[in-house]
Amino acid sequence: MTNMSPQQWMIEQHQFGHSLCLILDSEGERQTRQALLDFQDADQCCGVYSKTPVADLADAGPFMFLIDNPEDGRLNELLKAPERNWGWLASIPPEAGLQELVKHWRERLIVGARPYQALYRFHDNRVLTRALKHLAIGALPGYLGPIISACYWQGQRWEMLSNPTPGNHPVPESPAWCEVPVEGDQSAHIREVNARRYLLAEHLDAYARIAEQQNPDLWLSTQLALADTWGWQAPEQLEFLLVQSLKETDGTLAERWQARPDETPAAHFERVYQATQFWQGDAPL
To answer: What pLDDT shows up at residue 284?
Structure first.
């Protein structure tokens, strides 16, 4: 890691003969994305989500661009405003090409198992920062793949980090970057995104009925706040609460399910779960 500026880093990497790549969170930087697309050959840019299971989100997803000129003026606005968390920069071997980098991240795009799958926001410099802060050196090649060096804003300053073994690496069975501690506010955001994705994938019709009756985002936030109040944080507890709440949207569910004095979250959940199973005819009381 070094204290050089991103411009100095790009010039240095270019002098080493490496290709430069911009990983852009295009949802918040559409103007910059379009400026780059207008003058970029097809083989020099790529929407990462295209040709993946989340291709319908391609327009809002990350884009990658090869940067021929380290002093490209189209990057100036980004480099002057790193607090916008627009993404990060990487250098790769010229022979690897952009598609090798795209392939690498597509293989790491979806994490978790159904129904708790989530999109890994590798293009978010805050996500990258946390990963690089916690990963052991031995885990870096599997995470960074063909990347030789990464340049990113870590919240207070620019950081640069070299990959000890750039190249093609398989996705580990248990990726270490999926175990990186998540900050509280980001954790809550991820939980809400995952909950919404679960509802859309598994209970679309019922969730659509909610949207016809009230603001679905407010409804979901209310359910997650209730889960926080009761200490129900396990995936199966959240799933149970969401599914049952879809069936009763008048608020009576929360009234009936209140925790008893001195009842632990686990005991509270088990009692409510068993009672619900009984009333729905799925189990004896």
So the answer is: 46
Same domain flag for 232 and 256: yes
Angstrom distances, CA of residue 48 to CA of 77, 122, 168, 190:
23, 11, 17, 20
Separation of alpha carbons 82 and 66, rounded Å: 19
Query: Between the ranges 166-180, 182-196, 240-254, where is the mean pLDDT highest?
Result: 166-180
- Number of domains the chain is built from: 2
Question: Quick one: pLDDT at residue 231?
Answer: 87
Structural domain boundaries, residue 235: 185-279
Q: Is there a single domain that holds both residue 136 and residue 45?
A: yes
Examine the domain organization and report whether 162 and 189 are in the same domain: no
Angle (CA) 150-181-221 rounded to 5° is 110
Residues 70-118 pLDDT 10s: 888 889 989 999 999 999 999 999 998 899 999 999 999 988 766 556 7
Q: State both tokens at 156.
A: 């207070």
